[in-house]
Design brief:
The chain is of the alpha+beta class and 121 residues long. It has one domain: Beta-Lactamase (2-Layer Sandwich). Helices cover 29% and strands 30% of the residues. It contains 3 helices and 4 strands, in the order αβαββαβ. It has helices spanning 10-23, 47-58, 87-95, and strands at residues 28-33, 64-70, 73-83, 109-120. Strands 1-4-3-2 form a 4-stranded antiparallel beta sheet. It starts with 9 loop residues before the first helix and ends with a strand. The chain binds heme C. Heme C (HEC) is lined by residues 3, 9-12, 15, 32, 34, 37-39, 42, 82, 84-86, 88-89, 92-93, 110-111.
Length: 121
């Protein structure tokens, strides 16, 4: 699932929406992660995210999914590849002063979107 097309700053927008959804307590959250993040907070922070990122790099056509458990609560988590689907992705990320990678090409895996859905007890 490629991330959606050109917008003003999709990365920023998605991150803010992610926080918003999380705050509302709807039991669903998502965030963007990458091995080459503009924002250092967007590195993979746990085993699922690290393994998911590694897996979708070689198999970007399907998500990496797992059911995880925190305390007694189970979560369905899916890591989808975020592809450089437009020149806009490249233009902004390759030129961004905080980007550790400057040679993204069209259709490269730039990172991933992690979706987490609460399944209940
Ligand atoms: C106008 C500039 C801009 C464009 C266009 C853009 N991004 Fe980003 N992207 C950013 C910024 C800035 C961040 C960091 C947001 C934050 O602070 O969390 C980001 C974050 C990300 C992340 C999370 C890892 C990181 O770098 O922090 C991914 C993955 C990502 N973008 C993919 C894409 C994809 C795929 C596209 C094209 C569909 C795209 N971006 C288009 C500016 C852009």
């Amino acid at each position: 699932m490629p991330l959606s097309g050109p917008r003003t700053a999709p990365g920023t927008t998605w991150m803010e929406s992610g926080r918003h959804v999380g705050k509302k307590g709807l039991g669903m959250q998502y965030r963007l992660i990458s091995l080459w993040p503009i924002n250092k907070r967007n590195v993979g922070t746990n085993a699922l995210e690290s393994i998911g990122l590694g897996t979708i790099l070689t198999q970007p056509d399907r998500p990496y999914t797992r059911v995880t458990k925190v305390g007694n609560t189970r979560y369905f988590e899916a890591v989808y590849a975020g592809l450089a689907v437009t020149q806009a992705c490249l233009g902004c990320h390759n030129a961004h002063p905080d980007s550790p990678k400057r040679d993204f090409k069209l259709n490269d895996v730039m990172g991933a979107i992690v979706i987490s859905i609460q399944l209940g007890q």
